[in-house]
Design brief:
277 residues; Rossmann fold; 7-stranded parallel sheet; 10 helices; 35% helix; 13% strand; globular; binds nicotinamide-adenine-dinucleotide
Length: 277
């Protein structure tokens, strides 16, 4: 029989693309889910699930929602590059509310971080979990802040957290960059299950990508939770390898199109942030 978390699981961003997929998968696994989003949940609720509409900026609402929960799967907020003023409330303040709730409940946070935390590393680089943050916009910056928030709450309060640096999680591989960063829905679901059920995790970073031979990323904390991706973007290589944007900035950096948004340097960003010597 499938393992079930001892306490209910709160999922933010439940009405989003990844949230809906997780609700379906975790609902089928028999988990007790508390769901929230700022927009209504569009699908039938699985048995054992409840939905409450709330804004992440409303700290009291998040505290109430988290009452009695053992894990917060934090997938809500601004999920694309937007002006700083739009990112600030949901992604910075909202994240603080999630971590305060986790502290009060002694809950674990599983955070949907992003490849855009490191988007200004060049595509030729192979990165490990401890590479430098090189956010490629205000969205990526908010995700880097989220990862650091996890460090703070682990060191200061013992709040466990797993930061999933998700590449591109969608049903299909849709261009050449996605051949490197694709995370199948099935691999993401298994990752979230392991991240919730693993007995003791401290604070971890895990690259959210399937087993892609063209991948940009190396070492991370996956062994601690016992997760290995089972899918791969490789079967789409012949179909997508030539599907590139033609924008040199986009094609140079791991963050792709986000790196190119409002890019105003004359010369490319340096390969290393702090050159030796
Ligand atoms: N899909 C990917 O490939 C990918 C890659 C990297 C990271 N992520 C992260 O994973 C998470 C889910 O991604 P997604 O693709 O499902 O995005 P999505 O935009 O479909 O879902 C995000 C959800 O957050 C909700 N939300 C926005 N502002 C809110 C607020 N103020 N209060 C409460 N809810 C709010 C939205 O209504 C939406 O339903 C996001 O945090 C995203 O940054 C996704």
């Amino acid at each position: 029989m499938a393992e079930i978390p001892a306490r209910p699981v709160l999922l933010t961003g439940a009405s989003g693309a990844l949230g809906r997929m997780l609700v379906k998968g975790l609902g089928e696994a028999g988990w007790t889910l508390r769901l929230t989003d700022i927009v209504p949940f569009p699908d039938p609720l699985p048995r054992g699930a409840s939905f409450t509409r709330a804004d992440l900026v409303d700290g009291m609402a998040i505290l109430r929602l988290a009452e009695g929960c053992g894990t917060i799967l934090h997938f809500g907020g601004v999920s694309v590059e937007r002006p700083f003023s739009e990112v600030l409330g949901p992604n910075i303040q909202g994240l603080y509310h999630v971590y305060e709730a986790a502290r009060r409940e002694r809950a674990r946070v599983v955070f949907a971080s992003s490849n855009h935390t490191i988007g200004f590393h060049e595509r030729s680089e192979k990165l490990d979990q401890d590479c430098q943050f090189r956010p490629d916009g205000y969205y990526g910056l908010s995700k880097a802040y989220g990862e650091l928030m996890g460090r703070l709450y682990w060191d200061k309060h013992g709040v466990e957290n797993i930061n999933l640096r998700i590449g591109g999680s969608r049903p299909k591989v849709d261009n050449a960059r996605t051949l490197a960063i694709w995370l199948s829905y099935a691999d993401l679901l298994r990752l979230v299950i392991r991240a919730t059920l693993a007995p003791s995790v401290g604070t971890l970073v895990i690259w959210g990508a399937s087993n892609n031979s063209r991948g940009f990323w190396g070492r991370d904390g996956r062994a601690v939770i016992g997760w290995q991706p089972q899918d791969s973007a490789d079967p789409f290589i012949s179909e997508q390898a030539r599907n590139v944007s033609g924008n040199p900035v986009e094609e140079r950096y791991q963050g792709g199109p986000y790196a190119a948004i409002e890019y105003s340097r004359r010369e490319p960003s340096p390969k290393a942030l702090f050159p030796a010597g």
